[in-house]
Amino acid sequence: MMAENRVLDDELVALLRQAQRVVALTGAGISAESGVPTFRDAQQGLWAEYDPMELATPEGFARNPLRVWEWYAMRRAQVAKVQPNAGHYALAQWAARRPGLTVVTQNVDGLHQRAGSDRVIELHGNITRVRCAAGHGPVAEWQEKAGEVPRCCQCDAYLRPDVVWFGELLPAAALASAEQAVAAADLVLSIGTSSLVQPAASLPYLALGAGVPVVEINPEQTPLSADARFSLRGKAGELLPALVACIGD
Ligand code: BV8
To answer: How far is the CA of 47 from the centre of ligand 1 (A)?
Structure first.
């Protein structure tokens, strides 16, 4: 059913209207309608035989740096070709009406920023940034050569995408900022995430533990659904505009 004719529960509308310090935790699902495949989508084409959970690891990179580098180069090109969707824009509009709104994203595609959101915490980094695998900071430009992984000009180590792989710690500052935002929130939205990847999946429970309501948006049920105050079955690009429409100015 299209969200615009969805009758939103009176309690939900009241909750949304009175919330001043909102945290929107987003996952791959909010970018799905922009054409960015989620981790759970089957990999397409020549990548079909590879498991993202295997490629997005330090072990996968150590085992075959070129394969991992090319997977990210393909995804970087993919992200450059897509646009933010109505879900991203709705969160930017919500923040214009409630300046306290903070986006905490697991996504690495930068689409929230491109939609105009200015308070964005990237828990898992950003695929458009590249850094030296031996610890030198992000590099602004690098030479792409077919069949080769670019190397750091300071130490000759491989360059790698500036993202957090499975088995790697999240950037401490980003995680601390996300936890602080949730601790100060009076409403947490969990949007387009399977609620399986830790420690991001624990953030809504920080809110629930403090009695702060959580509203989930996902076409499917997740481990969070039963604990959320409202679990709305639907697409972010359809539901978020409907929610923003009811909060007023
Ligand atoms: C850490 C960057 C300490 C890279 C990502 C066992 C061994 C080793 C580790 C672990 C273990 N058990 C637990 C762990 C910890 C592990 C983890 O959580 N594993 C899970 C899978 C069990 N976590 C980590 O390793 C983290 N680090 O914990 O460090 C440590 C160290 C060593 C050992 C233990 C602990 C690091 C996690 C970060 C990984 N990097 N991204 C890259 O992108 O290439 S996470 C990656 O997965 C993406 O960022 C993506 O966001 C995420 C997948 O989660 P979702 O975003 O939820 O996306 P998903 O595809 O799953 O779901 C999409 C959802 O959208 C679905 O529910 C779908 O229904 C919905 N949807 C679809 N369409 C729409 C929609 N919703 C709304 N609208 C729509 N239109």
So the answer is: 19
- Structurally, the chain folds into a number of domains equal to 2
Q: Which residues does ligand 1 sit against, CB inside 6 Å?
A: 27-30, 32-33, 38-40, 56, 106-108, 124, 163-170, 192-194, 196-199, 217-220, 222, 235-237
Query: How many Å lie between the centroid of ligand 1 and the Cα of residue 248?
Result: 34
Q: Which residues are catalytic?
A: 124
135 and 108 belong to one structural domain: no
| Pairing verdict, β 138-139 and 125-132 | antiparallel
Tokens describing residue 218: 């996902």
Helix, strand, or coil (residue 182): helix
227 with 204, same domain: the answer is yes
Question: 75-88: per-residue pLDDT in tens?
Answer: 999 999 999 999 99
Q: Is the pTM of this model over 0.90?
A: yes
